[in-house]
Amino acid sequence: MPHYAKSEEWLRESQRLLEARPTTTRITTKYSIKTPKVRKPKPTDAAAEPTTTTAAAAKPARGCLALKTYDPVSGVTLKYRTSKAAEVSRLILCLGKLSRPMAGLPELKDEIMADAPANEEGTPAAEKSEAAATTTSAAPAAQQQPTPAAGGGGKGKKKKGKK
Amino acid sequence: MGHLSNDEFFTKLVELFDSRKGKDHGHIFLTQKRLSYDQPPLPEPTSDTILPDLHPPRPLPVLIRATNGKGKENRAKKIKLSTVVDPEALPAFFERYADVCKAGMTTLKPRDRSKRKTKAKKKKTTTGAVGA
């Protein structure tokens, strides 16, 4: 049950899982509001005690957003968690991106790439179409790649994934 | 409960988010998956396509659910919403969905600009590294 530190990694792995198991995989977004924990003031600074308690009481409830991709058949769970409001709309649009393989639509990026730098990378595009044809075997194999390696070479791999 | 239309779903979802506004606890669950019920059957698996669901003959709709996570003893308070999004309506749906969620998720941390400013004042070199 991996927890990803980066939403891009979560998105990439979720996309792979959805390509391999589009019928059973589901994505749950949990938005939870929690009361902030009241920290016990240190016994030594008794003078500061009243101010810290009032500060804790005034602290607004903190929400958190957790994304989970889960396939009940293979038991794969991929998670990502954030508490930043700035990420919300980007993450929901990620969900929209992930809904494409869910609906059985082709990946949108490929269409854009097909008409943009066609001269630059003729061969990779051709390879990609071949890969798409053999997704049945390729996707589950790719999924089994060790994640630590992916984390190490994060930048290079991410770029590859985007192409 | 039957599925709502996309428009109804959004109005109810806004209500659901509003019901949690100003509260200090609670959850909202949003789920999405491929709609596989009441769909024309997929072609029989052949040697070429062992898993026919990987390449369906035509795009399938996506089911979106929203709930406030109440159950068991709080069953009466449970709110359950669901809608079916057609494949061609997906981009428009998710744009609106993002707006509704952004407006509804008010307790998340806003971008903290004041902290960055004080940091910049303290150490100019480190912020340069962070910025790069």
Question: What this model shows, in words?
Answer:
- The complex is a heterodimer of chains A (163) and B (132).
- Chain A has helices at 7-20, 49-58, 88-103, 108-115, 122-133, 135-143, 147-152, 154-162, and strands at 3-4, 26-34, 62-71, 76-82.
- With 163 residues, chain A is α+β, with helices and mostly antiparallel strands.
- Chain A has a domain at 3-32 and 62-145: Signal recognition particle alu RNA binding heterodimer, srp9/1 (2-Layer Sandwich).
- In chain A, a hairpin with a 4-residue loop joins strand 3 (62-71) and strand 4 (76-82).
- In chain A, helix 1 runs parallel beside helix 3 and helix 1 (7-20) crosses helix 6 (135-143).
- With 132 residues, chain B is α+β, with helices and mostly antiparallel strands.
- Chain B has one domain: Signal recognition particle alu RNA binding heterodimer, srp9/1.
- Chain B is 36% helix and 16% strand.
- Chain B has 4 helices and 3 strands.
- A 3-stranded antiparallel β-sheet of chain B has the order 1-2-3, covered by helices on one side.
- In chain B, helix 1 runs parallel beside helix 2 and helix 3 (113-122) crosses helix 4.
- The longest helix of chain B has 15 residues, at 6-20.
- The model of chain B has no long low-confidence stretch (mean pLDDT 84).
- The interface between A and B is large, with 42 and 46 residues.
Distinctive features:
heterodimer; A: alpha+beta; Signal recognition particle alu RNA binding heterodimer, srp9/1; B: 132 residues; alpha+beta; three-stranded antiparallel sheet; 3 strands
